[in-house]
Every structure is written in C-alpha cells, then in structure tokens.
Write a structure and sequence with these properties.
The complex is a heterodimer of chains A (about 300) and B (about 250).
Chain A (H helix, E strand, L loop, with lengths): L1 E10 L2 E11 L3 E6 L6 H8 L7 E6 L10 H4 E4 L11 H12 L4 H9 L15 H13 L5 E5 L7 H16 L3 E6 L2 H5 L4 E6 L2 E7 H10 E5 L3 H10 L4 E5 L2 E5 L2 H10 L6 E5 L3 H9 L8
Parallel strand pairs in A: 3-7, 3-8, 5-6, 6-7
Antiparallel strand pairs in A: 1-2, 1-4, 8-9, 10-12, 10-13, 11-12
Helix pairs in contact in A: 3-4, 4-5
Chain B lengths: L1 H11 L2 H23 L3 H5 L2 H31 L3 H7 L3 H37 L6 H29 L2 H25 L3 H4 L3 H8 L10 H25 L4
Chain lengths: ~300, ~250
C-alpha cells in the first residue's frame, strides 16, 4: 500500500507538486500518468524519501520509506535517471546493492538471468545500450523480491519483446498481491497493463480512476449541449451517470444517448446537441490533462 | 556492517581505486629512495632516519587519502548513484557515518600499501649499505603515520559530504592546502599570529607527520585541531546531505 496525502513540493518558484492525494492498492498495478513535467518523478522521489516535501505526507506499507527496516527487500525501485557507476560492471553494481540490502549473492545471478542480462553482466556499464541499462535498473528493482514496486517509466528503451515481458511479469507480481506503481507519460504504453490510473497535471490530481472506467469513457462517451447544462448535469448525476463539464454548455456523459434524451425529456430540459463520441484512450487522457499542445514538450 | 561492506565493495570494483593504490606505492618508493639516497653516511646510521622515511611518505599518502575520501562521496553525486545508495541507506546521517568510516579504512589501506614498498625498498637498500634496522624507531613513526593517513581519509569523506561537487571539492581542497592556507600563514605571521596558523587544516595535518619535531604546537594539540576540522566538516556534511533533494 502506498499513500500520498496533501503532498506539495516547490523547487524555487516552480510548484512541482500541488496538494496531491492518492493511494495505491496492493494486488493491482496502478498507472501514474501525466504529461512530461507533470510532477510524476518528483512525487515518486518524495514517496521514496529522496525529495523532502514542503507539505503533506507519504507512506509505503504504513511507514515513511526511511522508517522501513531493510527497505531494499521491501520496496523495489526503478528511477528514470540511470543510477549505476559507468566504470563498474552490471554484475558488480548488483553485488553492491545486494550487500547493502542484506540480499544473498545468489539472487544477483537470478535477477540477471530474469532480465536476460547474464551475458553482458561482466561488462562495464558505460558500454551498455539504453535497453540494457533499463534491464539493469529493473534487475536492481527486483533484487530484493519486494512487496512494493515503484517504477518510473520502466518501458523506456525496451524493445517490443521486452515491453511484453515486462507487462506479463508485472501482472504476475500483482496477482501475487504486490503493490505496483508504474509511471508513464504515454497512456497507450500502460493501458494493457494497469488496473487503475492516477492522472496528474501540473502537480495536481486530475483523476484516480479504474482503467475499465477510463475505457468506458473512451468507448461510450456522449456529448450533450444544453442551455441548462448545470441542471442537466445534476439530473444525470442523480441517475448515477458519470458527468463531466467540458465547457461551452457541453457535458461528456458516460451513458448512451437514449438514456440521456429520456431524462432530459422527462424533466423538460432543452437539448441543442446529443452526439456519441468515440474517443481513443489517448484522447481521453489528453482531454483530462487539459492541454494537448503540451504533450511531448 | 552491511552498508560498510557495500562501500568497500564499491571501492574495490572501480579501477580508479587501484590507480590510487599504485600512486601510493610510487610515493612510498620515491620518498624512501629520496631519504636514503639524499642522506649522508652518518645520517643513515641515525635510527631516526627510518622513522623519518615513514613519516615523510605518510604526508604524501595523507594527501592521497584525502582525495580518495573526497572521491568516494562525490562519485555518488557525479554519477547519480546517490539515489540508489540512499534507497538502501535512507537515514542520511548513517550514510555520512558509513562514508567517513570507509574514508578512514581507505586511508589505512593506502598506508599499508605504502608501508610494503617502503619496507621492501628500505630493507634491501639499508641491508646493502650495512645499516642496522631500527624497528623501535620505525614503529613510533608507523603509528603516527597511520593515525594521520586515517584522519586524512576521514576528513576527505567529510569534505566530499559537505561539498558534493567532485571538481569543486577536489580543486577546493588542493587549492586550500597549497595556495590559500600558505597565504593565511604569511598573513597571520605578519600579524604575529603564527600560533593560530599552526592550527589550520593543512598545518595540523602536516604536524601529525612532522619528523623534525619543529613548530610550536605539540603533536597532541595538532591531533585535536585536525579532529576539530573533521568535526566541522562532518557537521556540514550531515546538514548538507540531509537537506539535499535527490532529483
């Protein structure tokens, strides 16, 4: 279990994370999504005690990271920045981590073989490709066979086979009851893997929602425009429909147009537009994060 | 203990560490050759010569230990390995303490390497010259030299922890020792404050391995002064490391 409550972090004049609250359940994979610069890495580093928050609290397994006994054995971490000394071999890098974490040396060979890095393990890290570095980072994260995994952009640099392996592997770990938080700035990259998504933008929580619900938004969203949009939104919400105002008197409703039309007619609400939207997941993501033009910046 | 073992493994698995070891060997050989070759026949019979060789080499190796101490901390920040290290050692005060201990042990290891080459060179050379060995005198020098080198390694780690920038710490330490502090000595001398100058970091370290017995500050005073500098640097290292965001 990971919990973030009211987290804020400022770097100089930049507010990187702004009163962010969310939780990550065990036994599921939670995607942590947002455009570049949304505050994902800062939040993850705050959870791991690498960044000191200006406000709020974070906890893993009910404790602050720094309070955990043998943290390497309990929390596996992959950071976006590469964290091995270029002059050391991949194998020695893992040996150092194993020794520091009280992990048996035999586990080093196990994880090297798991990430398919056995052949290159005695080479110095500075000669590794991006994909090999990412595999080494994953090996480091898995070294302690941890209950919790915090992975920042784990698919970066992996080839399609590697991404598929990672996806299947994470699913196996989640099925085993472990807590997994995976960040990405591309929804499509994690859509097939995650059970739930936490979407942030400019450091603020946009939505924490089940992946199935996000998919429903994409597949069955209906746009309705009315001069009485506010009243209509209330009526639809009372009928247990997911409603979001999308501006200009428009509402995006997670329900078929027939049901919406019936409720409007029964309550005498005038409609100017009623149309089915078939958005892609990526479009839903962009709409939620508000500013499509910023993506990839 | 696990963390300390990991730090030693980090040192052992980098080529640069072995490079420093080779330099320590070279220093030991050069100083021994210089001291024996540069002394008169009468001087060679003086039992203090053997102690002086060890102490002279120890000053050079102390500088080396200082640099190794700085590097073993600043490498973490330079290569971004600090995040992974702090994930294993989230209590940053403990991180600094382990680094200081590693700096001390690295200094001792360099000292042992130096000692091997001094012993081999001196025993062979003095044997050829029929100069009797004086283990008692050498042993006195040995303890003082070991103490100085261990403290220098510790001080280096503390400086690295306080500065974090590798270039800044290395250049800063060398410029202080060989440029700024000598200027301070001159300025303080002009102000009739020579006694204060002897308590500055490089001067007190030098006094620890001073084979002439010169200077106004006793060995114990110099030890206290250098331990004081280590304490100051350690406090700065703990404060700086605790406050730093690892981004």
């Amino acid at each position: 279990m990971i919990e973030v409550v009211g987290l804020s972090k400022r770097f100089g004049s930049t507010l990187a994370v702004d009163d962010l609250t969310f939780s990550v359940k065990p036994g599921a994979i939670t995607g942590f999504l947002g455009p570049n610069g949304a505050g994902k890495s800062t939040t993850m580093r705050a959870i791991l005690g690498l960044v000191r928050p200006n406000a709020g609290t974070t906890s893993i397994l009910g404790q602050q990271y720094r309070e955990l006994d043998q943290p390497v054995r309990r929390v596996g971490v992959l950071l976006e920045t590469f964290d091995a000394h270029p002059g050391r071999s991949g194998r020695n890098h893992l040996r150092v981590l194993a020794l520091a974490g009280g992990i048996p040396r035999a586990r080093v060979d196990e994880v090297l073989s798991l990430v398919d890095l056995g052949q290159a393990s005695r080479r110095r890290v500075k000669g590794y490709s991006l994909g090999m570095r990412q595999r080494l980072g994953l090996a480091a994260a898995l070294l302690g066979d941890p209950e919790v995994l915090v992975l920042d952009e784990p698919a970066n640099g992996l080839d399609p086979q590697g991404i598929r392996w990672l996806r299947d592997f994470l699913r196996t770990l989640a099925a085993d009851g472990r807590t997994i938080l995976v960040s990405s700035h591309v929804l499509a990259e994690v859509a097939q893997t995650v059970d739930e998504v936490v979407i942030i933008h400019r450091g603020k929580l946009v939505q924490q929602v089940a992946m199935a619900e996000l998919e429903a938004m994409a597949a069955g969203s209906t746009t309705v425009r009315s001069p009485e949009a506010e009243r209509l939104a209330t009526l639809l919400a009372e009928a247990d429909m997911g409603v979001r105002a999308v501006g200009d008197g428009r509402l995006a409703v997670a329900a078929p147009p027939e049901q919406i039309g019936e409720i409007a007619a029964a309550n005498g609400v005038v409609l100017h537009e009623l149309s089915v939207e078939r958005a892609t997941l990526e479009e839903v993501f962009l709409e939620l994060t508000g500013e499509p033009g910023e993506r990839g910046a | 203990m696990r963390l300390f073992g990991a730090e030693l493994l980090k040192l052992r698995t980098l080529r640069s560490t072995w490079g420093f070891g080779l330099v320590a060997l070279a220093f030991g050989a050069l100083v021994t050759a210089g001291d024996i070759g540069g002394s008169t026949e009468l001087d060679r019979l003086d039992p203090e010569l053997q102690s002086r060789i060890v102490l002279d080499a120890a000053f050079a190796v102390s500088i080396l230990a200082l640099l190794v101490g700085i590097i073993l901390v600043t490498n973490e920040f330079r290569h971004g390995t600090i995040a992974r290290t702090l994930l294993a050692t989230p209590r940053r005060g403990r991180f600094v303490a382990v680094k200081l201990l590693t700096g001390a042990v690295a200094g001792a290891a360099l000292f042992l390497l130096m000692l091997v080459v001094i012993a081999v060179t001196a025993v062979i050379w003095l044997g050829i010259l029929d100069v009797p060995l004086a283990p008692g005198e050498a042993a006195d020098g040995l303890w003082r030299a070991l103490f100085a080198v261990v403290l220098a390694g510790t001080f280096g780690a503390a400086v690295g922890g306080a500065v974090h920038s590798q270039v800044g710490a290395l250049v800063g330490a060398l410029v202080w020792m060989f440029v700024l502090e000598p200027i301070c000595w001159v300025v303080l001398g002009l102000l009739d404050l020579d006694s204060i100058a002897e308590y500055l970091p490089a001067a007190s370290l030098g006094r620890l391995v001073d084979s002439d017995g010169g200077g106004d500050v006793p060995w114990l005073g110099a030890s206290g002064a250098f331990l004081g500098w280590i304490t100051v640097a350690t406090v700065l290292a703990v404060l700086r490391t605790r406050r730093r965001d690892i981004t």
